[in-house]
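Sanity check

After download, print the first record. It should look like this:
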Amino acid sequence: MPRADRAGFPTYWTHFGQGPRAALMIHCSLAHSGSWGGMARHLSGALSMTAFDMPGHGHSAAWDARDEYQKVTTQIAASFCDRPVDIVGHSFGATVALRLAIEQPELVRSLVLIEPVFFAVAQRDAPGMHALHEGQSTGFIAAMEKGDTLAAAREFTQIWGDGPPWDQLPTAQRQMLADQIHLIEAGSVALNDDPGGMLNKGALDGVSQPVLLIEGSRSPAIIPAIHEALASRLPNARRAVIVGARHMAPITHAAQVSDEVLRFLQTT
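Expected structure tokens:
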């Protein structure tokens, strides 16, 4: 599949499906474009999907800290949109999708945001819940401060992962996660401090496109707080819950998430 400069960054991308509607898929942190494979099998009749590897992920170039991470990733996402398309984003990728809709609304037909980790909006609307989340993250923060990337990756996946326990992961996979864990810090500024100004007056209120917010019923408690805050601002948003799912629902519950996406697309 292609690998070339997109918005000035060496980026890999792939394609799924042959449906009549064009879609851009933006994966979560520590994943890659191939993580959409399960959902793509269910969506291929409806969507022609492009999925790219974010900087530092998959086959894209290593992150070089050239600028604010979410900003660069949003610019890369925009480079794949030559007309209004459906955007599907997961976790950090969902925050990129939302920023793209604010900054270049002419490129976005609809938004599917699967657990966007936009902590800044929860901090504003639900400070108690945000404080609880920060308390749950102290192990990760302490490990990063010590430079113990393996411990940081373990702590991070305990909160946000949904696979085998850390000790049951192959050694190579644990090391890969540790090698990429710095990307979590690279993106954290955007998620907590909102340098893109998504909370500025009129920004979220101005996103008029249809939006679907999808969450797992067993996801971290900060997620429904984020969704509630976003739904109160986005004028055309609806919510869906995947029963039994956690944060990695696009992988663990691909069929159920895809069903929600298809129902949403039928109305947009």
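If your output differs, re-run the checksum step. Summary of this record's structure: The first helix runs from residue 37 to 43.
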